[in-house]
């Protein structure tokens, strides 16, 4: 269902000079700046889309009460794809042709984003994706950007940690969806760089409810030091529970696709000791005081949890970064001209977000390096920072 929101409340966090006068009753004739979005709010990827939509709606609200952008209110135009690539194509076409949005922030998954890429490239409307797959921005596509850390970055962060622990042989299990497939590909590609051999390589369907057969195949391989699962949704939680049920005592890693309390809830005590790379937002309180992300991440956490009475996730943080980069680009462009906004997004430098410090360029439509990832371990139902 389509929802339009023309929202008003108070702006917090690190956005300056967006305007200091809230809209008065007589300002309704000002043409809104339209931010389009297509998110997986329902369906198997709802743990991504739900906090993303809540973040976009609330921070559009905050920006409007603080005066909007260029003296105009923001209007959020949203469609729920339920994680379906076909719906994503339909809705993005509608956002561009019928709703005539000025910029798009979404979708939630690699599959839905990639379905939209040809449309935004042809229509020349900038898209800032909230999905993790590296194919979104590699090779570079002129009108497409993203805020989440890539699956290649996650693979390299995990492999680097494995190498530091002396691991040389690992088992890999991954989901069959776009995110899992891409993560598997990037892990296989990066492993030789760290002197690590992948001696078992198993996959599962996103609809599977038991992965003990695949994990048993991995366990039967000799000399394995650790196991990595690459996936998102309920699959990783099932893999984690099955891992414990089989009594496997090898170190177990997950990707950034599980960087949400929902994963810990679903996996329950089986998640104890699991390691994963994630953004600073999940451990903001544990960051050193001189970390530039600490104040931004803490402010986002405080506002989100106060408003929605639920824990933050990394995924809502990606939406925050995407919206702020888009807003700052519109300000810098001084208009909603599509080409000018695109150019301004591409020239984003030194933007401190909850996902990292973004420095984009013509050759890099993400603008984050490996330092944007923190290695975490799950203990007592929470996140523990093990590498600053």
From TrEMBL:
Family: Belongs to the leucine-binding protein family.
Domain Leucine-binding protein residue range list: 32-366
Residues forming coiled coils: none
Cleaved signal peptide residues: 1-24
Record-linked InterPro entries: BCAA_transport, Leu-bd, Peripla_BP_I
Highest taxon, organism lineage: Bacteria
One Pfam family per UniProt: Peripla_BP_6
Name of the protein described by the UniProt record: ABC transporter substrate-binding protein
Keywords: Signal
């Amino acid at each position: 269902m389509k929802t339009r929101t023309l929202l008003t409340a108070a702006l917090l966090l690190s956005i300056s000079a967006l305007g200091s006068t809230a809209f008065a009753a007589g300002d309704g004739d000002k043409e809104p700046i339209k931010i389009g979005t297509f998110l997986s709010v329902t369906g198997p990827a709802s743990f991504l889309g739900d906090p993303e939509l809540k973040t976009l709606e609330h921070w559009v609200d905050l920006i409007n009460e603080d005066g909007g952008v260029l003296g105009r209110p923001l209007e959020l135009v949203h469609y729920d794809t339920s994680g379906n690539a076909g719906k994503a194509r339909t809705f993005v076409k509608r956002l561009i042709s019928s709703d005539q949005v000025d910029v798009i922030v979404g979708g939630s998954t690699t599959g839905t984003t990639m379905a939209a890429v040809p449309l935004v490239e042809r229509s020349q409307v900038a898209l800032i994706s909230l999905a993790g797959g590296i194919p979104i921005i590699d090779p570079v596509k002129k009108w497409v950007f993203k805020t989440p850390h890539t699956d290649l970055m996650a693979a390299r962060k995990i492999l680097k940690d494995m190498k530091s622990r002396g691991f040389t042989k690992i088992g890999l299990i991954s989901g069959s969806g776009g995110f899992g497939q891409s993560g598997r590909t990037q892990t296989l590609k990066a492993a030789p760089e760290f002197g690590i051999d992948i001696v078992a390589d198993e996959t599962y369907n996103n609809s599977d409810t038991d992965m003990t057969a695949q994990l048993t195949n991995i366990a039967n391989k000799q000399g394995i030091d650790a196991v990595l699962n690459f996936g998102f949704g309920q699959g990783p939680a099932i893999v984690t529970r099955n891992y414990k049920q089989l009594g496997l005592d090898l170190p177990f890693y997950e990707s950034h696709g599980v960087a949400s309390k929902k994963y810990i809830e679903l996996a329950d005590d089986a998640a104890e000791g699991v390691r994963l790379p994630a953004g600073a937002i999940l451990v903001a309180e544990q960051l050193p005081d001189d970390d530039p992300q600490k104040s931004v991440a803490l402010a986002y956490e405080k506002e989100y949890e106060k408003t929605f009475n639920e824990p933050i996730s990394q995924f809502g943080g990606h939406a925050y970064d995407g919206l702020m980069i888009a807003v700052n680009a519109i300000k810098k462009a001084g208009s909603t001209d599509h080409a000018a906004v695109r150019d301004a997004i591409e020239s984003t430098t030194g933007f401190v977000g909850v996902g990292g410090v973004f420095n984009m360029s013509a050759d890099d439509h993400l603008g984050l390096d490996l330092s944007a990832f923190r290695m975490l371990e799950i203990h007592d139902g929470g996140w523990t920072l093990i590498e600053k």
